Amino acid sequence: MKKEDLKKNKLLKKQLQKIEKKETKILEKKEFKFVKEKIVPIQEKIEEKIPKKLEQTLEAAFESGFKLVFEKGIGVIEKSYNKEDKRAAFDIKHYAVQRQMSHKNINKIDKSASKGILLNQLLTTVEGGVLGVLGIGLPDIPLLIGMLLKNIYEISLSYGFDYTEDKEKLYILYLICAGVTKEEVQAMYNRHLDEITKGDEQRLKDTQHLDAVIKETAHCLAEAMLIAKFIQGLPIVGVVGGFSNFTIMKDISEMAKVKYKKRYLKEKLIN
Questions:
Q1: Burial 57-82, CB ≥16 within 10 A → b, else e
Q2: 74 to 56, 66, 69, 82, 138: CA distances (angstroms)
Q3: Concatenated DSSP letters for 1-40?
Q4: Who contacts 27 (Cβ-Cβ below 8 Å, separation ≥6)?
Q5: Among candidates 224, 12, 191, which has minimal Cα distance to 103?
Q6: Residue 37 located in a structural domain
Q7: Alpha-carbon dihedral sign for residues 217, 22, 112, 123
Q8: Residue 18 maps to a domain
Q9: How far apart are CA 63 and CA 238, in angstroms?
Q10: CA atoms within 13 A on the CB side of 41
Q11: Domain presence at residue 118
């Protein structure tokens, strides 16, 4: 390997170490003492008391919502940002990284990925009617799914990944699951994401069963949403809006930024 390539790999490996530390921090996130002692026991009781019919109804709504948005809503979501501008912005920053591999140039890609995340998080707390004014004309649950996907799509474009292929749809679904679950379940979904990145044939076969993965994701989201809403004592009428949505979006955004940056860096490593 050339001396220049060795130098580039050294820098990339440093960046990878940093992002993998962030990844570990997410996966090993420790609850505050108050949360562990007071909230977690309540959460466990809530999980037992959530009416099965309510959970099944919400799961079914999320499942049909994902199918609707994947089939007809991507073009609607893309009206809220300029896809070509985002691609062009990535191309310029990526070219700078190729010309001069430096922490500064890689960090410029990170800044681009972070732009808009907070706004997207805040928008999930707004009632659906207000969001309709912003040009995202999807009602209630499909609207929330649209907001989640909009955020992930913008992050993926910032790191040079196209979200329209079945492989990317699969990746995004597992990304959402990893964002809203905890401990062993979260670690499992994180492994699924890494397997897709490596091109694991067994894992990529999941693209043939996308409906099953949508169902799985609907379950993860419905469970996270119900627990959050019950803890806050909020009514389940109108899923869109509220602090629980902000928290869910924040967790998914955090996971998305880490995983897409990790993919970008791994693709740049010179073998």
A1: ebbebbbebbbbbbeebbebbeebee
A2: 26, 11, 6, 13, 11
A3: --HHHHHHHHHHHHHHHHHHHHHHHHHTPPPPHHIIIIIH
A4: 186, 187, 190
A5: 12
A6: no
A7: positive
A8: no
A9: 17
A10: 4
A11: yes
Region of 264 please: left (phi>0), alpha (psi -120 to 50) or beta: alpha
Which residues, including other chains, have CB under 8 Å from residue 228's CB and lie 6 or more apart? Answer: 244, 247, 248
Query: Residue 17: which residues within 8 A CB-CB, separation 6 or more?
Result: none
Q: Is residue 200 part of a domain?
A: yes
Tally of domains within the chain? 1
Check the CA dihedral 30-32-37-40 and report its sign.
negative
Give me the residue label for tokens 């999930």: 124
pTM of the model: 0.84
The two structure tokens encoding residue 119: 């706004």
Q: Which domain holds residue 255?
A: 46-268
What tens-digit pLDDT sequence spans the chain (271 residues)? Answer: 788 888 889 999 999 999 999 999 999 876 544 444 554 455 555 556 666 777 788 889 899 999 999 988 899 899 888 999 999 999 999 999 999 999 999 999 999 888 867 666 666 555 444 444 434 334 478 888 988 999 999 999 999 999 988 889 999 999 999 999 988 999 999 999 999 998 888 888 888 889 999 999 999 998 888 776 654 554 444 444 455 677 888 899 999 999 999 999 999 887 6
Residue type, 260: Y
